[in-house]
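Predict the assembly for these two chains.
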Amino acid sequence: MNEEEGRGSGAFRRVGGLRKVLIVDDAVSMRQMVSFTLKQGGYEVVEAEHGQDALSKLQSNAVDLIITDLNMPVMDGITLIQNVRKMPSMKSKPILMLTTEGLAAKKEQGKAAGATGWIVKPFDPDKLLQTLAKVLP
Amino acid sequence: MKIDLSQFRQTFLQESADHIASMETGLLQLRTAPDDVELLNSIFRSAHSIKGGAGSFWMKNLAHFTHSLENLLDRMRSLEMRATDEVIGILLQSVDVLRNLLDADPNASPETEMPADAVELDARIAALMPVETDSAAAIPEDARQQASSQQEPQEPAEDAREIVLYKVEFRPDREMFSSGTNPITLLRNLAALGTVSCCHLHTEELPALADLDPEQCYLSWTVELASRCVEAEVREVFEFVEHLAEIRISHSDAAPQTDSLPAQDSTAAPKLAEPSVLDG
């Protein structure tokens, strides 16, 4: 067993690394469900409970995609998207809104802020993975 | 792959019980601070979270009732409606109804009818609000999403469909990159729907290197695709970018009748891929 393996499975990375996704939602159950689905789909996951927490997680994590709820305490999803789009490293990364609002107004707000697309809650796990595959380069 | 999320039900139930308790505390505080927007926002978020999770566990009645509550609370937090004693009273009664709905038998059919007290309160909530806005569309859309994920596809099986020859004109706005969208990813997704016989890249708008802004998209494409997909499926590729691109999809009625897809042959693509067709 070499030193790399000796650190345990948590430290083991596939060559090229897993795709890393940041999931932002104040509801623990929703975060767990999305996170579980993503891990089943072979993604690495970072969780944050609101926009401010997400911004701080982004300081230490380079992610390939963000999935964010819109209604959250401390910092909502729209403000998060606006802030993320100002970060040079995140300017062109896909951001998906995780939202129960089916109505156009909220989606428009998100799109104007720089969101790439959306996932409607409750989500179908397979559809969630398809949507990710659809927006990731 | 079928992913089962039912193991998270217990977390959701516990979380929702906490939300209901904090809604109750918040509503009691609202009596003395009816215009406290932060308080209203927090009560709204509790209802919103319960609704978001309820659908995931087929708790239809809970999802429906919290949707009504959410509509009311949304108007209150935007101060469109005042938190009068009457409204707060109805919301406090709703807290009890929520508790009962949350305790519903997990093995009951999702089609179980809403309990009478919930139906009555739901009607009173509806009566508080002037004509419904389009926000009422949220539930049907959620329901549709669930229904579509459960039902067998209504379309004929893909193999049984005729091959259609599509011409897809895709002209991204200059600002497309700002939404985190990569047009190449979209073209890749489009190509996955069938066989591309012609992909014409339009470079006329590409400026000299010195004038090029790397954050702008100057390119556009005309793609000819032979596919068994229906037009809606082709259009779905561009679902997220309809506001960021000009997309025209047309198809030739003279689709190949044979089962084999057309070979890459310029004669199979007459008059296509003219850059001028993108003008306007």
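Residues 1-15 of chain A have pLDDT under 50 and may be disordered. Chain A touches chain B through 46 residues (CB under 8 Å).
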